């Protein structure tokens, strides 16, 4: 087992009320904020490149009396190959402001891997999926493509729309510069 797999196994073995996966967690700040706000939730941030999350990861690993966050795990993994231990475990999966192959997979770009089927496999029956795309960096038909991909992956209760939101993650705060962000927002559920 590599270090990330060991850390993930240890986190899953600790008692928790629910599991939230933040796929493409970037700097990990939003994941860490969730873990601090909900101490009984196991918050797992996954990213193909965890360099931006190095600081948050270091701090989270400290003793709890020194600001550590025991219910946070940050794991290097790609959305196309999520750790097998997560299959059917997540109560909620979040993908916020993805780019690169993660965005291409969500929008079913030609040749992109099937990311949505993997996200569904990580959810427990009835688990929730939450996707936020930066509307300015996505094609005009992004909402239609996302809806079609969610249907093809077997999600139910699908809602997709364009709206304005207050930025809440590291990347969205950078993008928004204090203004509301124009986003494509999708919510769906794994079948119960
Ligand atoms: C714009 S950042 C957003 C980070 C964070 N969600 C936020 O809002 O601050 C997009 C992230 O997606 C990650 N990413 C891109 N393709 C990925 C893939 N195939 N699997 C996992 N992470 C991926 C990148 O490494 C990057 O950290």
Give a brief rundown of this model.
The chain has a 7-stranded mixed β-sheet with strand order 3-2-1-4-5-7-6, sandwiched between helices. The chain has 192 residues and is an alpha/beta fold. The protein has helices spanning 3-13, 29-37, 54-60, 100-106, 115-122, 142-152, 170-176, and strands at residues 18-23, 41-47, 72-76, 90-96, 123-134, 156-165, 181-189.
Task: Provide the CATH topology.
Answer: Rossmann fold
Structural class: alpha/beta
For the secondary structure, the number of strands is 7
Percent strand equals 25-35%
Order of strands across the main sheet: 3-2-1-4-5-7-6
Indicate how many domains the architecture comprises: 1
Counting DSSP H or I runs of 4 or more residues, the number of helices is 7
């Amino acid at each position: 087992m590599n270090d990330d797999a060991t850390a993930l196994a240890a986190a899953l073995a600790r008692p928790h009320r629910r599991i939230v996966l933040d796929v493409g967690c970037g700097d990990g700040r939003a994941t860490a904020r969730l873990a601090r706000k909900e101490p009984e939730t196991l918050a797992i941030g996954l990213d193909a490149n965890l360099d931006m999350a190095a600081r948050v990861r270091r701090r989270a690993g400290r003793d709890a009396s020194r600001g550590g966050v025991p219910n946070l795990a940050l794991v290097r993994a790609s959305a196309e190959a999520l750790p097998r231990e997560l299959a059917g475990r997540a109560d909620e999966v979040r993908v916020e402001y993805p780019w690169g192959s993660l965005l291409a997979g969500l929008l079913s770009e030609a040749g992109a891997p099937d990311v949505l089927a993997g996200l569904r496999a990580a959810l427990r029956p009835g688990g929730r999926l939450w996707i936020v795309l930066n509307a300015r960096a996505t094609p005009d038909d992004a909402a239609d493509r996302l809806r079609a991909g969610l249907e093809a992956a077997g999600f139910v209760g699908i809602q997709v729309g364009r709206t304005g939101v207050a930025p809440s993650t590291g990347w969205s705060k950078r993008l928004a510069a204090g203004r509301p962000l124009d986003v494509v927002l999708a919510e769906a559920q794994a079948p119960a």
